[in-house]
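=== Structure Prediction Worksheet ===
Name of assembly: unnamed complex
Input type: mixed (protein and possibly other molecules)
Chain count: two
Listed entries:
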Amino acid sequence: MIGILASVVDGVLVGAVYGLAAMGLTLIWGVMNVINLSHGAIIVLGMFVVYFLTGATGVSAYVGIPVVVVVGFVAGIIIYWMSVNRVIGRPILMSLLATFSLNMIIIGLATAAWTTSPYNVPVSLPGITVQNYTFTGTHIMAAIIAGAIAGILYLFLHYTRPGKAIRAVASNRDAAELNGIPTRQVLAMAFGLGVALACVSGALIATLFPFTVLSGGAYQLKSFVVTVLGGLGNPAGALLGGIALGMVEGLATPFTPVSWTPIIEFGLFVLTLIAFPRGIFAFTKA
Amino acid sequence: MRKGFYLLAAAAFLAAGPALAEDTVTIGFTASQTGKLNNDSTSQLRGFELWRDDVNAKGGIKAGGKSYKVKFVSYDDESQGTRVQQLYTRLITQDKAQFLFSPYSSGLVATAAIISEQYGKVMMSIGGAEEKTYKLGNKYLFQTYTGASQYLAGALDVLKHKNPKAKIAFVYEDDPFSKAVAQATRELAKKDGFTVALEESYSSSTTDFGPIINKVISSGADALLGGGHYADGSTLARQLHDQKAKLKWVTLLVAPDSPNFSKLGDSAVGISVPSQWEPQVTYKPDFGPTPAEFAKEFTAKYKIAPGYHAAGGYSGAMILQHAIEKAGSIDPKKVAAELNKTDVTTFFGKCKFSTDPKSHGLQIGHTMVLAQWQMKDGKLVKEVIWPDNAKTANIMY
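=== Predicted Assembly ===
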């Protein structure tokens, strides 16, 4: 019994980080109807930022998180003005192609620079041991940071002027423009935020698991599942979706071979699309 | 003026003539320069390259009164079977490779072997241990490694010695090689009276072993056998340590053999690995360098000690060279006939290929050792612990 509980707790801890990754994806979709196919590559960028930061300065990976946020935000704004701005409001295929090509460029350059060998960010935190099961400190810390960032995002979107502007643009861009909101800048800011969230989740994942330049694909896929669970365009739902996914994984693994996890995951994805096309947690729309 | 130019050009061409006429033998292969097999494949590639440089420095391969300089044509297979299929076809049809080395890993070797057999090209298989590929009636495929079913036999011997009632968890990568090893070992373990407490395979891209480790703990296992390749094996070792799995014995395939494994620090201590070769072995070679000479030359060039993938690469290439020299020709049929007769010892150990039509090319001469990472004077070292007559340190259980 304690084994099942340990598995669920582990799942929830990791799920919170997946939720954070999905928040970036869902924020961008919710505000500008762009599905960011470079999401995985951006997660990997976050991983490498924290890798080089800890390597070069010797600071703890957690101290590096604010730097990752800033780097991600600036990178997001640059990406927005370079490729996304031109395709907003155009057919969806154009934004898919624009972000997919960006994905290929980032992965290509990163492979040339860093190869596809595995990298590790060495972090060591004391864990909590209950009977024979140990919850590692890094997992607990990552979940706490993911929760804190989700909370800050919620406060930002609901209680600050720029946050309210983002929500206004998301709900009706023309009306927002008529009210004097500089929508292009707001869109750029939202994209920057989305990318920063993806980068931070990448940095947190890097403290848990080894990664390569090609790791992003798997996390992007998970982000899509989480996003659908949580409702597309809904950041708070994404966090809940991530935790729910982690919980399901944790519940399933003691009873089924681990290789079945993706089947359960994507089965859930299809079922959600059929039963709740707008997402299970759509009622909490931010 | 123009006439003069033509004359000059003709003279230059003639002058270049003898250089062009130099005999070369082209060997084609793919290496996983990117993707998850990168670490092990790179070691193998270095073994090939060191051999090529050695041979060319000595004037090339000597056969039938001629000297053939060795030329490599190679591509990055991205650790993917589909790329291997395209690239081996290209190596044979466009690049006119006369001989082939296999890519790294059983899955990719199986794919490449289909192409090499179709075109009747001799392929030295290095890093393809799964036996199934050699039981399909191939004629030109030759395996230099000991087969997969033998990989964990040594680990079982150690367990029989230390804890005959051990409960074993099999946790292995879901790829042809690791599956073949695990299935063969599980049967052996049952025969030996061990309890199989858990059997779990994981996808090659797994980075989160948390759920599996929880299952291992729940199963009450005291030994874990399995793993797969470098990326997953090193992660599994690290997370077993982080989650304090308290296993008494862990043997993982492939990963712990890499010198890079020592970067794991404390997580590496006590982890054992079946190895095709270790620098400390004392084989007396019939030809080529001794184990110590090879290790010294490799370390001088690459600033890292060779693991068995590097040694396998060098020795596999050397076996091909030996067969070409014996055959006195680069005709694939004649070379294959010489390979069939091969029964030699190199620094890598014994080498003999099965000539039974049902398992043609399967390695039947080579044997393995079991190595373990141990802490000595505050430094991590890999010691040979099994079999007894080859050991350099006692077993740490």
